[in-house]
Amino acid sequence: MNAWLTTHIQACERALRRLRAQPLGSLLSVLVIGIAITLPLGLYTLFANVAAVASRVNTDPNINVYLALNASDVEVRELEKRLRQLANISRVQFVSRESALADMKRVANLADLLAGLESNPLPHAFTLRPSSADPALLATLRSEIAALPKVEHVVMDFAWAQKLKRFATFAERLVLLLGIILAATVVFVTGNTIRLQMLTQKDEIEVSQLIGATRRFIRRPFLYFGALQGLLAGGVAVAAVSAVTLWAGNEVQALMVSYGSDYALNSPSPALALVVIALSTLLGWSGSFISVSMYLRRPAN
Amino acid sequence: MIAFSNTVKRYPSGFEALKGVTIEIATGEMVAVSGHSGAGKSTLLRLAAGIERASQGSVMVNGQNVGQLKEAGLAVLRRNLGLVFQDHKLLFDRNAYENVALPLAIAAFPRAEVGKRVRAALDKVGLLNRERSNPVALSGGEQQRLCIARAIVNRPSILIADEPTGNLDQDYAATILDLFKSFNQVGVTVLLSTHDDAGITRLNCRRVTLDQGRLAP
Questions:
Q1: Does residue A3 belong to any structural domain of this protein?
Q2: What is the CA angle A204-A210-A216, rounded to 5?
């Protein structure tokens, strides 16, 4: 156990020494890997924010039925009765023209403008919740409802929300795909850095093998080196994305307020940051492992 | 003990460096392998160190068949051997102390023990005052002594030296050979190759002569 720990400490020290011995080269490698990780992390953060905004939007299908302005209370009640009898409707909610006007005054800050009106221009309306989101069924429902007496307009305004939801799903997959491609890039960049390291230290490797070093012993400092590069690059990526979200945060918040939302842009959470750093460390280690194994697999001296 | 039994070494090109060599070297014995260039001296030593594998026959070192050892077993074997190379194989990005400490780092010795052993080895070859020097700053003879210090730092039971005096003038060569003699006197088995007849006479040890891959009568 003691010997095992000693070899690991020594390998780690050698890796740190190599990192310090080539500060510029190491810095460039860390930055290249860091940028490669920043791209998927940045996109993930962006799409996570978009998804968070989308989750606040009601994406359940609703059908708004606007009645003619001259519809009487009796006609409204008759229409409500017929709407409730329709198949595939799970909920019917009546919105009176008075409450619609009150809502409009409250939400849109148009109290002054609306106060100047002689009469309420808004019609009575019904908000219906279909029991299915099947497009064909909804199209039939729409036709049926539009044919009912005193119905002026039938609006199904959830299509955009569904599109937003689909976009969020697509974005998730895009981030995943990009993440995989850039993870391969990280492995490649680390592997190449390590390969160059091994070429510059081929004498040491040869001598070490001649005097009794196992492949594991030779591999170890390079693995620590790759892992260290990955660790630092992960830190660079998290720092870069956090800095950008902080920098853009105020502007985004101001924009969201203008849309009546209090949503604030989220930076990568500490848990996500830890996952990213752990993952990039693992990728750096993997790149080194592949590179060193390929180098050591060549015919022995 | 080192035993070559009907050992053949054939390279992929078809060239046979050794053609059925049988030699036994007893524990604590010193053997000098002589012969012209291309006689197979270095190949014989490389087989004993497990750097190359025999094509036919066997090479036994300390009771182990070197040809059948896997990577880990070979590494353990080499840690128990002291190898001295004609071209020294020193690391020029490390100082003398660090070069000698390398086998101990591989064997995971504790730092305090490394310090003691490295200084003792450097003292033995007369380089204690040069421990912080880079090998580039050392003369050819000093580099060879440094290589010997690295070979003995693990206190091996067998020393294998390929032309250890090949690039040295006579005075330095004599110093190096005396070092090997002193190691042999404390029980270390020494197998070295040389084409220096005067050196072999100085060593006063068994001589094995190779001629075109065969033992000369």
A1: no
A2: 70
Give me the count of residues in chain B.
217
CA-nearest residue to B47 within chain A is A301
Nearest residue of A to residue B80, measured between CA atoms: A212
- Same-domain check for residues A135 and A29: no
Assess whether A174 and A284 both reside in one domain: yes
ipTM of the complex model: 0.85
Contact B102 A212 (CB under 8 A): no
Give B-chain residues touching A206 at CB under 8 angstroms.
89
Q: Which residues of A84-102 are buried (b: 16+ CB within 10 A; e: fewer)?
A: eeeeebeebebbebeebbe
What's the CA gap between A159 and A61, in Å, rounded? 8
Same domain, A291 and A171: yes
Query: Element (H or E) spanning A92, and its range?
Result: strand A89-95
User: Is there a single domain that holds both residue A72 and residue A115?
Assistant: yes
Chain A residues in contact with B109 by the CB 8 A cut-off are: 6
Tally helices (H) and strands (E) across chain A.
10, 4
Q: Tell me, yes or no, whether A144 and A181 share the same domain.
A: no
Is A16 in the same domain as A148? Answer: no
Which of A1, A207, A219 to probe the B interface (max B CBs under 10 A)? A207
Number of domains in chain A: 2
| Domain encompassing residue A67 | 63-157
- Across the interface, of B78, B92, B108, the residue whose CB is closest to A210 is B78
Q: For residue B103, which residues of chain A lie inside 8 Å, CB to CB?
A: 211-212
Q: Which chain B residue's Cα is nearest to A13? A: B105
Q: Give the pTM.
A: 0.69
A179 and A91 part of one domain: no
Compute the Cα dihedral for A19, A22, A23, A26 and give only its sign: negative
- Domain end, chosen from A157, A185, A210, is at A157
Question: At which of A101, A127, A157 does a domain end?
Answer: A157
pLDDT in tens, chain A (301 residues): 677 888 888 888 888 888 888 888 889 889 988 988 898 888 888 888 877 776 676 666 788 899 998 888 899 999 999 999 888 888 899 999 888 888 877 765 666 777 777 788 889 999 998 887 777 787 888 889 999 999 999 988 666 666 777 777 787 788 788 888 888 888 888 888 888 888 888 888 889 989 989 888 899 999 999 999 999 999 999 999 999 988 888 888 778 777 767 777 888 899 999 999 999 999 999 999 998 888 888 755 4
Q: Which among A4, A206, A217 has CB closest to B106? A: A217
CA distance B72 to chain A (A): 6
Distance in angstroms between the alpha carbons of the first and the last residue of chain B: 22
